Amino acid sequence: MKSALFILLSAAISLPVLAQQSDEAKAPEASTTQPAEAEGPLQMQQPTAKQWLQRLSTSLRELNFDTSFVVVRNNRAEPYRWLHGVENGRELELISLLNGPRKEAVRVDNTVSYFESNQQPYSVNTDSISGPIPRAFTSDIDKIYQSYDLVEVGKSRILGRPAQLIRLVSKDKQRFGYWIWLDIESGLLLKAAIINNEGELLEQIQFTHLTISENSNEMLKQLLEAELPETHESPSEVTQAQLSWRVNWLPKGFDMLESNQHYVEPINLPVDFLLFNDGLVDVSVYVSATEEAPRKSSVNQTGATVLLSQIREGYEITVVGKVPAQTADAIADSITFN
Q1: pTM here?
Q2: Does residue 271 surpass a pLDDT of 60?
Q3: Residue 189 CB coordination number (10 Å)
């Protein structure tokens, strides 16, 4: 019998939304790109893959844009609208899910506020929204180079715009690869795909509309006058030394971003939580005491997100992240108890 924590987390990553099947769920074809032209003595030097990612990060922070995209996983599509702007030196952002119950996030500089239909609105102090767009694309991208090789593949056409394809290839095969298509004119993201080590498409983000303007959107300007929710107090942070357990192995490049102890609603059980990041991917580890019998690892996967759970030594261990099941299992197996 699966535990309440596993069922709760599994539902969180696989909850369906009103959507239609999309042809975008097919794996990207290599033939959609053309090899870059060879450089000649009179040709201007082309940007490197690293320079393209740096340009992406800058564009996402500095440009005023209004865009829509669809996240496709397991033949289901989640449509989003994404607004970004800079007004009087203030950075403003909004991402909203367009189908189903309300789910949106707004950012004013380093404060992000979340609004969902099933919980009270709250704000947190951070410079990036947690959502479909990897936060590494909007922050310091240097950490990505530790774990991924960057390959400039060639040019394509996405959303009617010339695009540059960059592949992020896992150096150790212990994480998935990313293909990203960047608008040559603006440097903005036009498409992204998560690919497993067998070259199969697991999940993708396809942009369906993009408008870049000189001024920020009027909807964003209203955020400067809006009364946003109070900043949410995070659970008390702890160190691994304070916990009764320890993670002894993670793929190279993963660092701990957050650690706390809290109660998970609605099951009202105390849970230890650690969050790790390799510059592109988050991996969450949950550990809670249980009276259930020992159980080998079980896996639930939605798109690229893997949820793995096992029970041993009186504890339930759950690992969640966009990593291969073998990697999640190795992380769980590495945990020892004091």
Answers
A1: 0.83
A2: yes
A3: 25
